[in-house]
Design goal:
Blueprint (H helix, E strand, L loop, with lengths): L2 H32 L14 H15 L1 H14 L2 H16 L2 H22 L8 H42 L4 H14 L4 H12 L12 H23 L6 H15 L7 H6 L1 H22 L19 H23 L7
Helix pairs in contact: 1-2, 1-3, 3-4, 3-5, 4-5, 4-6, 5-6, 6-8, 7-8, 7-9, 7-12, 8-9, 9-10, 9-12, 9-13, 12-13
Organism: Clostridium innocuum
Subcellular location: Cell inner membrane
GO biological process, one term: phosphoenolpyruvate-dependent sugar phosphotransferase system
Length: about 350
C-alpha cells in the first residue's frame, strides 16, 4: 500500500469535512449560548424560534459531516464516480454507529470498489461508455459498498457500545479518574468512535429524570478537555514554528479557532504528520484537564464545550485554569518529542 497516497486521500476527506464541523458546531453553540437562561429546562436550545432555527441549521450541517468525509475520500481515489458510493458509505457509518472511523474506512472501501469496477469495465466499447457512469458504477458500486458497510459497522459499532459500558462502570467511583478517561478518549482517535462514545456519554449525564437539563461535571470535563486538543497543536506551532511544515503553519489559525470552539478535528493534520509524537501528548494533556475539572467539581449545562458556552460553566476561573494546565502539559510534551528534529523550511 502507498501510504503517501492513502494520506492524501484521507486529507482530501478531512479538508471537505472540517467546514461542516466548524459551521455546524458554531451554530449549535450559539443556540445554547443565546438560550442560557433556560439552561436547566427541557427546552434548552429550542425555547424560541430564533434558537430553534440556529439549532436546526447546526444539526443539519453536522449531519452531513460523515457523508462528506466518505464522499471526498472516495472522490480522491476514484474521481467523480466515487462521490455517490463514498457519500452513502459515510451516511451508513453515521446511522450504523461507527461514526468517524466508519466513514473513513467506508470512504476508502467505496473508492477502491469503484476503482475495481473501472478496471473490470475498461474493455467496454466507447459507444457504451454512458452505461458505466449511469448504471454500472452507481448501482453495482452502491450495492457492493453497502455490503462492505455491513461488515464495517458490525466490527466498529460494538467497540463504541463496549466503551460506553466501561465509562458507566467508572461513573460511580473516582470523579477525577473518570474525567481523565473522558479527556484521553476524546484525544485518542480525534472524532472517531472512541471520541464519540466519550462525548455521547458526557451528553447523557446532562439529562434529568424529568427530561430537563442538569449541570454535569462529566460534561464540563468533556467540554474543557476537547478544547485542549487542537489548541495545543496550534500553540506548539506558534512557539516552535520551525519544527512544523509550511502547510501545518498555515493550519494553525484553523486549529486555534476549532480548538477554542470544542472541535478536536483541528488537530488531525498535526497528528497525521507525526502520530507517534503528537497523539500521546494530546491524550495526556486532555486527560490532565479532564481530571482537574472533575476534581474541582466544575459543571457545564450545555451539550457542547468551547468558549461559546463559557457563561454556562459553574466556575469560569478554575475551568480556564484547567484548560491552561492541560494545554501546557501537551505543548511541553510535543516539544520534548520533536526538539531534536531538523528545522523545516
Amino acid at each position: 500500500m502507498n501510504w503517501k497516497k492513502s494520506y492524501n486521500h484521507l486529507m482530501s476527506g478531512v479538508s471537505y469535512f472540517l467546514p461542516f464541523v466548524v459551521g455546524g458546531g458554531i451554530m449549535l453553540a450559539c443556540a445554547y449560548l443565546f438560550d442560557f437562561q433556560n439552561a436547566n429546562t427541557a427546552t434548552f436550545g429550542s425555547s424560541n424560534v430564533f434558537v430553534s432555527w440556529l439549532n436546526q441549521i447546526g444539526g443539519l450541517a453536522m449531519g452531513y459531516m460523515f457523508p462528506i468525509m466518505g464522499a471526498y475520500i472516495a472522490y480522491s481515489i476514484a474521481d467523480r464516480p466515487g462521490l455517490l458510493t463514498g457519500m452513502v458509505a459515510g451516511a451508513l457509518a453515521a446511522n450504523g454507529g461507527s461514526s468517524f472511523l466508519g466513514a473513513v474506512i467506508g470512504g476508502f472501501a467505496a473508492g477502491y470498489i469503484i476503482l475495481g469496477l473501472k478496471k473490470l469495465t475498461a474493455g467496454i466499447p466507447r459507444s457504451l461508455e454512458g452505461i458505466k457512469t449511469l448504471l454500472i458504477f452507481p448501482i453495482l458500486g452502491l450495492a457492493l459498498t453497502s455490503l462492505a458497510m455491513l461488515a464495517i459497522n458490525s466490527v466498529v459499532a460494538p467497540v463504541s457500545n463496549a466503551l460506553t459500558d466501561f465509562l458507566s462502570g467508572l461513573s460511580g467511583t473516582n470523579a477525577a479518574l473518570l474525567g481523565a478517561v473522558i479527556g484521553g478518549m476524546l484525544a485518542l482517535d480525534l472524532g472517531g468512535p472512541i471520541n464519540k462514545t466519550a462525548y455521547l456519554f458526557s451528553v447523557a449525564t446532562l439529562t434529568a429524570a424529568d427530561g430537563g437539563t442538569v449541570p454535569s461535571v462529566v460534561m464540563a470535563s468533556c467540554g474543557c478537555s476537547a478544547m485542549v486538543i487542537a489548541t495545543s497543536c496550534a500553540v506548539a506551532c506558534t512557539l516552535f514554528p520551525k519544527k512544523f511544515s509550511e502547510n501545518l503553519r498555515g493550519a494553525k489559525i484553523a486549529a486555534y479557532i476549532m480548538g477554542l470552539s470544542f472541535f478536536v478535528e483541528g488537530a488531525i493534520p498535526f497528528v497525521a504528520d507525526r502520530p507517534k509524537k503528537i497523539l500521546p501528548s494530546l491524550c495526556v494533556g486532555a486527560a490532565v484537564t479532564g481530571a482537574l475539572v472533575a476534581m474541582f467539581g466544575i459543571t457545564l449545562s450545555a451539550p457542547i464545550g468551547g468558549l461559546e458556552t463559557l457563561l454556562l460553566v459553574s466556575n469560569i476561573p478554575l475551568y480556564l485554569l484547567s484548560f491552561a494546565a492541560g494545554t501546557a502539559v501537551a505543548v511541553c510534551m510535543i516539544y520534548f518529542f520533536i526538539r531534536n528534529e531538523p528545522d523545516q523550511e
